[in-house]
Amino acid sequence: MAELALIIVSAVFVNNVIFSRFLGLCPYFGVSKKLDTAVGMSMAVIFVLTLAGTITYIVQTYVLEPLNIGYLQTIAFILVIASLVQLVEIVMKKVAPALYRALGIFLPLITTNCAILGISILAVQSKFNLLETIIFSFGSALGFGLALVIFASVREALETREIPKTFQGTPIAMIAAGILALAFMGFSGMVK
Amino acid sequence: MLQLKTFPKGGIHPSQQKISAQASITYGEIPKQLLIPVNQHIGRTANVVVKKNDVVKRGQLLAQASGFISSNVHAPVDGKVMKVFRFSLLGGAIGEVIQIQPDEPGKSYREVLEQDVELSVDLNKLTAEEIRKRIQEAGIVGMGGAGFPTHVKLSPPPEKKIDALIINGAECEPYITADHRIMVEQPAQIIQGIKILKKLFPEVPVYIGIEDNKPDALNMMDKAAAREEGIFVVPLKAKYPQGGEKQLIKAVLNREVPSKGLPMDVGVIVQNVATVLAIRNVFYHNRPLLERVVTVSGSLVEHPGNILLPIGTPVSYIMDKFNIDRERVRLLLAGGPMMGRTCHSFESPISKTTSALLFFDEKAFVQRQENPCLRCGNCVSVCPMGLDVAIYVQMVQKNKLDDYAKEHIMDCIECGSCTYVCPANRRLVHWMRLGKRIIKREN
Amino acid sequence: MNIKEKAIKSFFMENPVTGLLLGLCPTLATTTSAENGIGMGLATTFVLLSSNVVVSLLRNVIPNRVRIPAYIVVIATFVTIVDMSMQATLYQLHKTLGLFIPLIVVNCIILGRAEAFASKNTVWHSFLDGLFMGLGFTFSLFILGSVREILGSGAWLGIRLIPESWNTILVFVLAPGAFLSLGFILIGMERLSRLFERGK
Amino acid sequence: MVEILLPGFILAGFALISASGLYLASKKFYVYEDPRIDEVEALLPGANCGGCGYAGCRALAEHIVNDHTVDTPCPVAEPIVMEKIADLLGLEASVQEKQVATLLCKGTHENSALAMDYRGIQDCWAAVIVADSIKDCAFACLGLGSCVQACNFDAMRIENGIVVIDEEKCTGCGICISHCPKNLLVLRPVSQKTIVTCSNTDRGPEARKACKVACIGCMKCQKVCQHQAIYVEDFLARIDFEKCTNCGDCVEACPTNAIEMRGEQVYVTA
Amino acid sequence: MSKQESGFKVISVLVLIAFFAAALLAYVNKITREPIARNMKEETKQAVRIVLQNLGQFDYPDDPLDKSLTEFTARYFTAKNASGQIVGYAIIVKAPNGFGGDFDLMVGIDSTGKVLDTYVLNHKETPGLGDNMKKEDFKKQFRGRSLANTRWAVKKDGGDIDALTAATITSRAFTAGVKRALTVFNVLNEEAKQ
Amino acid sequence: MEAKNLLIMDSSPLGLAGESTRKIMYSVVLSLLPALGVSFWMFGWAAVRVVVLTSLFCIALEALIAKFFNSKIDYLDGSALVTGILLAMNLPSNAPWWLLLIGSIVAIIIGKQVFGGLGQNIFNPALVARVFLLISFPLQMTSWPVPGQFDGTTGATPLGILKTEGVGAIAKLKTADLALGYVGGSLGEISALALLIGAAYLFYKKYITWEIPVSFIGTVFVFTAIFYWINPQQYASPVFHLFSGGLFLGALYMATDMVTSPISGRAKLIFGFGCGFFTALIRLFGSYPEGVSFAILFMNAFVPLLDRYFPEKKFGMQS
Q: EC top class, in one word (chain D) (predicted)?
């Protein structure tokens, strides 16, 4: 149990997807302009990443490894993730339209979120078992969501500040992210 | 005396400056010409019913209310209509005025008033219907500043059960002493007015809220009310903006008017003392709203005082009367320094809502160099409405109002407390007003 | 197509990183040194170029509805090829770039160019587009890598610039420094782009 | 050979399962949507990078179709793509003559003096909270530049107390119109040269007192116009752009110079 | 999507592409498998050459052997000279409880049990502090030390080792790691004698 | 224009309470004097040198920016001075001049001016600089001169000792020494008492409120107490945690920075709790001995969220 808790803490704070692993930065900067959007995106990522982590684990353990074709990992994973995302989108649209309106619109964006593929590959590399993989994927997504939501609120606040013209837009966002990364450095070494 | 009541959240203690508090109400003369503003109230503009060269009598209707939320305007003196045109009013607005050439310029207004017969009023014979109708016809509006037609306030829809009446004698703004003097000099008449209002809401207790910085007014009102049943004088701890309707209700009854709501939503009707006096005069003198008491004060006024004047009297008349040097005046305020409005013409006339005229020179004006917001939170802590002023203002400045701010910014009562305490010297109220304006424009 | 203009465009105005803000993950993660930046950039360029060519070749064969999955498969194939060949020949570099080689698959530039350009243009034009976009990407990675290496390690392309005993600003080789440097480089590149635009 | 074919079959299997799964799912869970969304999405790059601020290409397509606007360009696509989309949706289809914003006031500091020393927030809307007008004329341009701030094309500037519009830069987007608290801005076709540069509806004497170049409602222009294109209403001359031929008769007739001819005079023979 | 393509065509194109992609990859894999495997070993072997570089000519096996002691396990390479005599060992141990957790350390030991050199294989110590253990200034003090001639602790704890400035924990871990390697050497040496 | 005769028009109100940015800033400077005094006494001229240099650097940098980029900046409004002094209080007294210069550049430029200057920054400038330096120059930032000894002897802070040596090593430290500042550390870390005296003045002037310091310090106390109670052999006592490190400096001066803390009372309580929680977390489990600066910087990022979701209680929103 303590093991699993450590995996979560590590994934959320210590090895935060954004600030430590540098994964999923495109949506991080793209979707963090508005708080509402950021919250929706975070939810969608948590859902999809947990699911994707689980399924890629199964693909790796029961197909790729027994057949000794580990080099197909990238292509197999991305194929699985892309279809999975699209499947979820199609099904959600029909079965739960309300949920689709809230989360579904973020789904296409997730296919090319490198956090999904990256975390799936990392989970395999870390030699986690199924439960650990699920927890790890979930925790990583949670870390992504946390970073995204804070950052979106910071960017919304920046909109009301007197940012010099030169720094407006992405440059100031980068600098704010840099300072946030400084703060995240404080968590280093918490999980060994 | 009981423990002093006040509203709990926010508020400030600006320097009182009630230098005219002991000056009895004086009376002016009829000026050479009067400019009667057609629109002296909140609501639809009245329709002018006189033409150039018409001869009008004192009390004659000049403009007819154009709907329920509107108000009549009457001629305060006998005279001739010269013309109807657009002119600068007190407070920066430009609006239609009716220019009247009085028949007897220079005649003491006191004499005019003394010609009005004192009628005896049998309260038992008055019906609620009749009272409302006569108040409406007399063009009575809230004389505290806003100018909301009084008959509308007194006609709550039947589903709103009124269980308390509050008479607003707080007068929390610095300098202004008009209501104070009325309470000192005419307490019995105010009580007569209250008793007329009580006919509309029988059995409902009446509270007269007066701040403790006016002990003589408290004393006089206390004595006058002592003989009456169901009328209570409530002494209040002096704090600005206690005279705000919502703050007064909170202070007196500890009830909170909901956001975007009206006092009647918590079963209360608030009337200003001057308004009550005007109502009284409708019944005891058969006189519509023709005049009001104006405090004349400020650093350039040698002998500050309170003067009763017919509505439409130009500021220049008052300046002559009080010996105010035109060359030195740089700042003319209609109302108090916290919520009053600056004016730009000495020819503008006083209206039903002009409670004070303050004259200052350049020194009184604070050079506002707006500095960046420090987010110190002073504005938030003094805001009697609990608004996050600093945050909203930043949004207004960048035109990035979010839904949350839009929902609350309209609750601002523009009392000015935030601007008063801002260390960065920011024009917070002005920005808030601008924010309101932007929201209205969007809708 | 004017090649020179196209080159300037993809290096400055439409630079994938500083102009379009695409492919940020490898940009920030792998630029601890100028050399790593170039390595990552060239790997991406190869994939971009090859997939652009193949997608352009297949543009009339692939049905519209599965074009995205099909492109992804094509891209993933080249990525894996790069991955394996780098591991075989440039082992040390591959080790530092690590996870980010397979992640080239999800670099938006590649899919974006495949979709926006290669699927609608001839093979030769797609080749040029892939080449210049890739080099533009490499260029910004090189710049970022140089800044971070010089400030953070006191060296450039592995050559020590200041005495061993001097302190370097370590933060620049770490995550916060990556964001901060990119923030300032964005401003510099914007200025440069404007210069070029005015020069036209 | 097996070691090459086997992986091929396995991956083909993956592809088969996912493709047919998706195909079946899209049939079974079909939901109707505006088909144009698909068409627009097909034109967009499909990189789903989120660079436009929307959550992916489909979200942008939905925005374009549902809100019927191409205000948010895709940062990845060539500009031609957005033009194609606009064509597809019939946006900007009708070719109109270029319109420009025009200020209906000539109340410079010389013509209509300041009536007060306004010290509040330097913004027209903030000023009208304090006073209806800061100049002698109640209808004058305040010259505090709310429209200048609103203009996205740098086409406006304040000069001598009133706003001056650069007709070259003006795109006729009309955003400034709603930002004028005095409602002094209108759009006019560039070929319309004759304008009444006044909005004062007061009677002649008062209008003249307020501004040297005010329209005093004298009706001379109405009388002189041969095309019934100019008429006086509320003591203010107004021009019907449909009928006006820019002949310039009214300009000459106006005693207060309240009617102006912009640029070169163009005669239109009826 | 203006035209509706048939489901069969859609699926089959995708399947075909996937098939060719995987086949291509399998082919590339076939070519690169060998060099990759070689590269992976090469790194460790490089380290062995560094830590044992003072031994002159020697041979050692391609893959390390495992050695389990009660508290920990280690891997080692045995270096032999041309005549088949053991001239030294390169022992890989986990240095315990560093700042960023355990890290892998390779220690070269000559046949007399003296430390030749050290090499840090991978670590998560703080840049600028702990990772100074890779620097010559710190490493050189270990050369020539053996289990017997040294108190294996940092000076602060009453030993002989100078700790890195402001990185006591890393220094402790490093010291403990070297000590472990020497312990392994003793065991191996005993076994070799038998 | 003959504006002379025209009447002034402006929006009400026309009075002012007489507060100003400068007054606030210089009051903060004043309140820092006791703590500065203690560190001057402890570390001698070295400490004076650090404070003077950082203050000069910070003001000079703002003056340069004011000259070349944004003439609206008032570099003498005291805010740059406060940043300079606070930065100095986060540094060791033997810090080399280039460290002070880099710190000042980071604080004023990256921490403040890129966001638009006074009042616009999201993160506390002095802390941005401190964390930046801590990560970049760990060697210089973790060896501290020993107070009272002017011979350049360096040692670790009590928290540093705790992290490397364990609980046993700090047993000999007396609480009174910790509270009075007779231990190693940065300029402002050393005397909790002097800091409290200064802060009392700010409380009196109402420039800071009780919420953040109380919930910050309280949370650290509670969390460290819980772990101390679980295992006193492994974790230090809460009293030790209270008086060691920069907790008081952080809780009284850095977290309460008006610009980077939330506005409403409720939000301040949560903000303080967050600071305390992450401080305790980093101190107990992280690899850095001190977590105050990281925790505050981290919570700074939450301020917009807190402002939005825990605003002031609105009038008329009862029921």
A: translocase
Touching F (3+ Cβ pairs <8 A), the chains are A, B, C, D, E
- E-strand ranges in A23-121 read none
User: Domain range holding B427?
Assistant: 378-442
- ipTM score: 0.87
Task: Specify the DSSP class assigned to residue B423.
Answer: T
How far is the alpha carbon of E5 from chain D, nearest alpha carbon, in Å? 11
Q: Which residues of D68-84 are buried (b: 16+ CB within 10 A; e: fewer)?
A: eebeeebbbbeeebbee
Tell me how far apart the alpha carbons of residues A111 and D47 are, in angstroms, rounded to a whole number: 10
- Cα(F253)–Cα(F42) distance, integer angstroms: 21
**Each residue of B165-211: pLDDT tens digit?**
999 999 999 999 999 999 999 999 999 999 999 999 988 999 999 99
Which pLDDT score, from 0 to 100, does residue B297 have? 94
Q: Are F190 and F38 in contact (CB under 8 A)?
A: yes
Give contacts of D114 with chain F, Cβ < 8 Å.
1, 3, 6
Average pLDDT value for residue range A130-134:
93
The dihedral formed by the CA atoms of F307, F313, F317 and F319, expressed in degrees to the nearest 10 = 120
Which CATH number among 3.30.70.20, 3.40.1440.10, 2.30.30.100, 3.40.50.10470 corresponds to the domain D192-270? 3.30.70.20
DSSP state of D141: -
CA distance B314 to chain D (A): 18
What residues of chain D lie within 8 A of the CB of C73, using their CB?
A: 15
Chain-chain contact of F316 with B256 (C-beta, under 8 angstroms): yes
CB contact under 8 A, A82 and C175: no
C1 pLDDT more than 60? no
CB B297 within 8 A of CB B278: no
* CA-wise closest residue to D113 among A87, F2, B1, B265: F2
F143 and E166 in contact by Cβ < 8 A? yes
Tally the domains of chain B. Answer: 1
- Identify whether B329 is part of a domain: no
CATH number of D36-89: 1.10.15.40
**Count of CB pairs separated by less than 8 Å, A with E:** 18
Query: Does the pLDDT value for residue D80 go beyond 90?
Result: no
Contact D76/C73, CB-based, under 8 Å?
no
Please tell me the distance from the alpha carbon of residue C167 to that of residue E131, in angstroms, as a whole number. Answer: 14
Which residues of chain B fall below pLDDT 70? 1-3, 366
Burial B312-335, CB ≥16 within 10 A → b, else e: bbbbbbbbebbebeeeebbbbbbb
CA A125 to chain centre: 17
Give the Cβ contact number of residue E141 at 10 Å. Answer: 13
Query: Any idea what DSSP says for residue F106?
Result: I
Domain locations along chain F: 21-309
- Contact yes or no for C115 and D47 at CB 8 A: yes
Total Cβ atoms within 10 A of residue F149 = 14
Mean of the pLDDT values across residues E88-117?
Answer: 86
**CB F294, CB A185: distance < 8 Å:** yes
Question: Annotated binding residues of D, as ranges?
Answer: 49, 52, 57, 74, 137, 141, 147, 151, 170, 173, 176, 180
Enumerate the known binding-site residues of D for [4Fe-4S] cluster. 49, 52, 57, 74, 137, 141, 147, 151, 170, 173, 176, 180
Chain E residues contacting D via beta carbons under 8 Å: 1-2, 7, 10-11, 14-23, 25-27, 30
Architecture of domain F21-309: Orthogonal Bundle (1.10)
Q: Taking CA F261 as the corner, what is the angle to CA F257 and CA F263, rounded to the nearest 5 degrees?
A: 115
What class has domain D99-188? alpha beta
Tens-digit pLDDT profile for residues D151-200: 888 889 999 999 999 988 887 778 888 889 999 999 888 888 899 999 99
